[in-house]
Amino acid sequence: MKVGTRKDHRLKAILASVAIIGSGACTEYRIETALNSDGSGHRSVTLEATDPNRLGEDVTRRDFVEFMSVTEGNGWDHTVQVKSNGDTLFVFKRETPIRDLNAWTDLNDEIHIFGALPKNADTKLGHLRLGDLQLRNRVRVSAPGRTDGTATFIFQETFEWDHGLEAVLEVFVSEIERFAVAVYPRLSSQERGEILGIARATLWPAFENGMLDQLFEEDEELWNQALDQISRLAAKTIRTKYPDAGPESVRERFDLFSEEFEGEVFEPFDRLLPGFSLAGTSVSFRLTMPGRITNTNAHERENNTLIWEFNTDDAITAPVVLLAESVVGGSGIN
């Protein structure tokens, strides 16, 4: 669990290499939420996208609307604006009144990004079905009463990529496979499978121990440890066909973050995961709470309005959780 903050990192450099970023497209959510003292409330969400018609050769504006889940059938209004600099701005907006405490769950999946286009949902990337890669939000609001006649309002909203780490793992593994095919073409499919099994078994615990978070900060210690192990074990298989292959030469071929490969496109993101490549979408979230705020992990506060600023890629390695509590009633608090 974490609260995301805006940052530049190595994984974002990978995502930024794909066509959607290179095309100049830019996306931003603005979420305005108000919780009232009777449990009702209101939500306004705006998604702005510049040039969503230029998302790559195979991705159209219609595709963008579908994998960002901002269809008119889901209650989103669509408008087109021209900015002062001449850029075209596509605006998607949704207004949702909340009638009572139980209705807050109606906001679940309001922010819902599919990693892949619907036509590719059943395509496999390693062990991952692309249609299972999705960013979702979950909202929970409660107001337990207290013996002193006051009520504590608890607001919690979570943003999380389902199978996000698995997707990144499979992209890493697919790149290792690509290099193995190119550099060691005499390996059989079974031998390549052994190498990929080694890569998965090594990288997953490294991910769980925070390897991607280290890469976010350009610290490659865990990546280098994993790469050393993969290279050492893979060399044993590779030497059956290439006797001169040693751990150092294999390591050089499989180092995805070496200067030799810097800036190179991770092709599966480009071809299969245009929605996931939008993981750098910025989110500005404002929540107005009733009564007196007693606890929050917000980044900023303006009176009773709490503010979070994060990116959707912050939800890849762990859920982004927004939390706020306030007390209503007693001592003149409304």
Could you explain the architecture of this structure?
With 334 residues, this protein is an alpha+beta fold. The protein folds into two domains: 10-163 and 269-321, no CATH class; 166-263, no CATH class. Helices cover 29% and strands 28% of the residues. The protein contains nine helices and 14 strands. It has helices spanning 10-16, 19-22, 61-67, 164-183, 189-208, 211-216, 221-238, 247-254, 267-272; strands at 26-35, 41-50, 77-82, 88-98, 113-114, 124-125, 128-129, 134-142, 151-162, 282-288, 292-296, 300-302, 305-311, 320-328. β12 (300-302) and β13 form a beta hairpin. α7 (221-238) packs across α8.
Structural class: alpha+beta
Distance between the termini: 31 Å
Helix proportion: 25-40%
Helix segment tally: 9
The Rg value, from CA coordinates, equals 23 Å
- What is the H-and-E element order? HHEEHEEEEEEEHHHHHHEEEEE
Main sheet strand line-up: 3-4-2-1-10-13-12
The total count of strands amounts to 14
Unreliable stretches, pLDDT < 50, 5 or more residues? 6-10, 16-24
Provide the domain count: 2
The outline comes out as: elongated
**Biggest β-sheet strands, sense, barrel:** 7 strands, mixed
Mean pLDDT: 85
* Share of β-strand residues: 25-35%
Keyword list:
about 325 residues, single chain, 9 helices, 5-stranded antiparallel sheet, 7-stranded mixed sheet, alpha+beta
